[in-house]
Design a protein that fits this description.
The protein is 70% helix and 0% strand. With 84 residues, the chain is an all-alpha fold. The protein has a domain of 28 residues. It comes from Muraenolepis orangiensis. This is MADF domain-containing protein. It holds the Pfam family MADF_DNA_bdg.
């Protein structure tokens, strides 16, 4: 069981750092930012952070998109409209 606990703590630390990373780098997701369309720059930033977190770039980007999709769905659900 100890291994599982350590892995979960590591995952939480990675998630915390990833959240902070995406907050600090709006150009990765905010279409209003000038550098948003600079794919090479966005890729370099993602690669640097993925290396720092010891995960793959695809893993980092997929994690972000999944969290973003959940947030969008959650906002729609909490609109107060009744389905009945």
């Amino acid at each position: 069981m100890a291994k599982r606990g350590k892995k979960q703590r590591k995952d939480c630390r990675i998630q915390d750092r990833a959240v902070e990373f995406f907050r600090e780098n709006e150009m990765l997701w905010n279409t209003q930012k000038t550098d948003y369309r600079n794919k090479a720059k966005r890729q370099r930033i993602l690669e640097t952070k993925a290396t720092e977190l010891e995960i793959g770039v695809d893993h980092l980007w997929t994690w972000f998109k999944t969290k973003s999709m959940f947030t969008r769905l959650d906002k729609k659900k909490s609109g107060g409209a009744s389905n009945s």
